[in-house]
Write a structure and sequence with these properties.
The protein is an alpha+beta fold. Helices cover about 25% and strands about 20% of the residues. The chain has a three-stranded antiparallel beta sheet. A two-stranded antiparallel ribbon has the order 4-5. About 25% of the residues are buried.
């Protein structure tokens, strides 16, 4: 799980276990959450179109496996 704001602002320093506590704080405050697959970010949303932050914040910095529908439009990706 990736805190999008820290990742875009800090690059590789905004990823992984070393950044997990900061990412959890940012995600709990409502900043966007995404999954990073290779060089692509997939914004995360729940199936009912609600924010995924509450469920995913504790997974910040961890490698995870998710199941869902991928949607793509105009260069944006969502799962």
């Amino acid at each position: 799980m990736v805190d999008v704001v820290c990742y875009l602002d800090h690059g590789a320093q905004g990823l992984g276990k070393a950044h997990a506590e900061c990412a959890k704080k940012c995600l709990k405050s409502g900043l966007p959450v995404a999954l990073k697959v290779g060089d692509q970010l997939y914004l995360a949303s729940m199936a009912d179109h609600t924010a995924a932050n509450a469920k995913l914040a504790e997974l910040a910095g961890q490698q995870v496996t998710v199941h869902g529908t991928v949607m793509e439009r105009d260069g944006q990706h969502l799962i």
